Amino acid sequence: MSSRVVGGILALLVVAGAHGAAAQAGPSLPRQLSLGEALSLAKANSPTYRQTLNDEGPAAAAVRAAYGALFPTLSGSTGISYSRAGRQTFANQVFSQGSNTVASNYNLSASWSLSARELMAPGQQKAQQRVVEENITGAGNTLTADVTTQYLAVLRATASVEVARQQLARNEDFLTLARARQQVGQTNIIDVRTAEVNRGRSQVALLRAQQSETDAKIELIRRLGMPTQTDVDSIRLTETFQLVEPTYQLGTLLAAAGVDNPSIRAAEAQHESARIGVRSAKAAYLPSFSISTGLSGFTQQYTDINPQLAGALASAQGTKAELRVPERHPLAADLAAPVAERRHHRRLQQLLGARRHGRGAAGRHRAEHPRPQQRLALLVHAPAVVDLGRAVAPPVGRLLARAGDVAGQGAGR
């Protein structure tokens, strides 16, 4: 049972290999070949013609790209990143991160530009496309002429083989006749030897004609783009031609060549493309218009906010309150008072301290009955201290407000 299974598998592999080899071999050449079939095979398999035909796709794509350059350009991108907690060193600087972070970003942009060169580009690419089309037409005409000429060469070689065979049969008949005449004494041995030489020459001519026919068939197969492993001796050409007298006029031929010749039309299209290219190069000195816009965003999220909260709390506990007032602020003049005013404020604080702790009647008298300059200073600076207390941080503001209230009570008395 196992041997039968193995045998079946081997048979399937052999069949599959045969099909694969047949697929790689490509299309087969028919034994009876007409001129139309030969031209069809040549256009489908000729490497030179297919190479020229392959230029049609890039030319059409270039035209579409030239028109597409006139439309706006849209682009977008997005991304996501993940960063673990730890310490990183960059440019001799240490950066620490207390928590893992997940970040994402996106970017959308649109732009549009217009210039004289971009407006001329479609016309230039269309001219190049016409050049490619005319080259393809010319390659097709050349292929048709080559295949037809070689087809006629094969027919001529086949006819030459037939003529050589007829000549060989004729010389064999002459040799037979010469031998018969030599036997009856009507001729001599020289005529017999001459007939034998002529027969040998006919045999050589037949071999040369057959070799020429084989070479012509191989060249025809090569121009068709078919594999040369074909049995050329089995190929038979079935096309027949009638001999007719041409009635063409030279003027008519020249006019038709000037209008319909693909090489001339390709040269004219190439000239048009070059002329547009010159104008496009000159248009590079003209101004161009462009506009662009975009939208982007970035997000970042901590996977654990406890380390950040702990760091912020520690930083808040160790930070000292610092007061900074702009130069144009109404309190700037009071904060930048001369040295004499600062001494006056220290004196006022001493008086308030003496009154608060009951340091004697003299101190209370000076606090209750200040001199006119001191009373004016109290009235001027007390509101400023109160406003300053509202402008700073709450703890420092409460202290300054309390000092302002005390100074206001002293000034009222």
Write down the secondary-structure element order. Answer: HEHHHEEEEHHEHHEHHHHHH
**What proportion of the residues is helical, as a percent range?**
55-70%
What form results from the Cα inertia axes? elongated
Helix run count? 14
**Tell me about the biggest sheet?**
3 strands, antiparallel
**What's the mean pLDDT score?**
76
Strand order within the widest beta sheet = 2-5-7
- Unreliable stretches covering 5 or more consecutive residues: 18-25, 359-404, 406-413
Terminus-to-terminus distance: 127 Å
Radius of gyration: 55 Å
Number of strands: 7
Please identify the structural class as seen in this structure: alpha+beta
- Classify the beta-strand content into a percent band: 5-15%
Commentary on this structure:
The chain is an alpha+beta fold and 413 residues long. Helices cover 66% and strands 13% of the residues. The protein contains 14 helices and seven strands. The chain has helices at residues 2-25, 35-45, 47-53, 56-68, 116-183, 189-224, 250-260, 262-282, 306-317, 332-335, 339-356, 361-368, 372-391, 394-412, and strands spanning 32-33, 73-83, 86-90, 93-97, 101-114, 236-237, 289-302. Strands 2-5-7 form a three-stranded antiparallel sheet. A two-stranded parallel ribbon has the order 1-6. It has a two-stranded antiparallel ribbon with strand order 3-4. A hairpin with a 2-residue loop joins β3 and β4 (93-97). α11 packs across α12. The chain is elongated. It starts with a helix and ends with a helix. The model is unreliable at 18-25, 359-404 and 406-413 (pLDDT under 50).
